Amino acid sequence: MSDERDQTSLRAKADDAANPDAEEDEEDDDVGSPFDHPAFLPVLLWALSLWFGYDGWLNDDPDMQEHLTFNRYGFAVLIVLATYFTVQGVREMRGD
Q1: Residue 83 — very low, low, confident or very high, per pLDDT cuts 50/70/90?
Q2: How many angstroms separate the CA atoms of 84 and 81, rounded?
Q3: Which of 44, 60, 69, 74 sits at a 20 to 30 Å CA gap from 33?
Q4: Among residues 34, 78, 83, which one has the least CA distance to residue 56?
Q5: What's the CA gap between 29 and 75, in Å, rounded?
Q6: Is the dihedral of CA 32, 34, 39, 40 positive or negative?
Q7: pTM score, two decimals?
Q8: What's the pLDDT tens digit per position in 16-72?
Q9: pLDDT at 33
Q10: Is the distance from CB of 72 to CB of 57 less than 8 angstroms?
Q11: What is the C-alpha separation between 4 and 11, in angstroms, rounded?
C-alpha cells in the first residue's frame, strides 16, 4: 500500500516538474475579494475628498471652524490622490 502512495506522489512530482505553469494557472483561477477591484480605491478617495471638501468650504458649524485648515489641505491631497488612482484604475481595467 505504501508503494502505491510513493508511486502516486512520484507521478505527481513528475507532472509538476513537466508543467511548471500549472501553479500559475491555479493562482489565476482564485477568486479575488472586492478590495482587489481597480475601482475600489478611487471610489473611496473620491468619497473622502467630497467629505473633506464639504467640511472645508461648505460647513458653517462653529465647532468645525478650528479644523478648517486641516480639511482644506486634506481635500487638496485627496483630490490629487483620487485623480492619480482613478487614472491607474482605468488603465488596469482596460488592460484586462
Answers
A1: very high
A2: 5
A3: 74
A4: 78
A5: 39
A6: negative
A7: 0.65
A8: 555 555 555 555 567 788 888 889 999 999 999 999 999 999 999 989 889 999 999
A9: 86
A10: yes
A11: 11
b/e string for 47-77 if b means 16 or more Cβ within 10 A? ebbeebbebbeebeeeeeeeeeeebeebbee
Domains of the chain, by residue range, sit at 1-30, 33-96
Overall size of the chain counted in residues: 96
Q: C-alpha grid cell for residue 39?
A: 475601482
Per-residue pLDDT, 86? 97
Nine cell digits for residue 6: 510513493
- Name the amino acid, one letter, at 69: T
Q: What is the CA radius of gyration of the chain?
A: 25
8 Å CB contact between 41 and 89: yes
